[in-house]
Amino acid sequence: MQLDAFDRTLLNLVQEDCSRTAEQLAERVALSPSAIQRRLRRLREEGVITRDIAVVDPRKAGRPTFFIVGLHVEREQPKLLAELRRWLAAEPHIQQAFYVTGEADFVLVITAPDTEAYDGLMARLVTENVNVKRFTTNVALGIIKRGLTIPIPERPDA
């Protein structure tokens, strides 16, 4: 799908705040509210926008602890990796999971109410996934920046 300048501007705006109305977006993009709605519907249908979410302040939601985990697998067999990916994707405490190059095979961002809950999750991970060799854990001491925004240049060649 080709994104034009209107799409690009619109995507940046809804990533910033997806609760804006079509009328509010139309004030920032030189299109009518109905054209904005059509474009947003098309961007969703084409899978450019995959979902709309609310970003929750962790301090106001019980101050969960964030863990950044390097996960190492025993074997990189496609079937075993697929099973592990499904497990990781289904676990609600795993916010992000990346299959990566380097020392670890996966990098995970996990949130849990405390270290005991994290230990329980990791015990289940190792027990239910025989291909997990080991993992390393970093505990986040503070949040400097947290988000999922993809910066989209106004021009495709920028």
Automatic annotation (TrEMBL):
Keywords: DNA-binding, Transcription, Transcription regulation. One of its GO terms (molecular function) is sequence-specific DNA binding. It comes from the Bacteria. GO terms for biological process: response to amino acid. Residues 3-64 form the HTH asnC-type domain. InterPro entries: AsnC-type_HTH_dom, Dimeric_a/b-barrel, Tscrpt_reg_AsnC-like, Tscrpt_reg_AsnC/Lrp_C, Tscrpt_reg_HTH_AsnC-type_CS, WH-like_DNA-bd_sf, WH_DNA-bd_sf. GO terms for cellular component: cytosol. PANTHER family: LEUCINE-RESPONSIVE REGULATORY PROTEIN (PTHR30154), TRANSCRIPTIONAL REGULATOR AZLB (PTHR30154:SF34). This is Lrp/AsnC family transcriptional regulator.
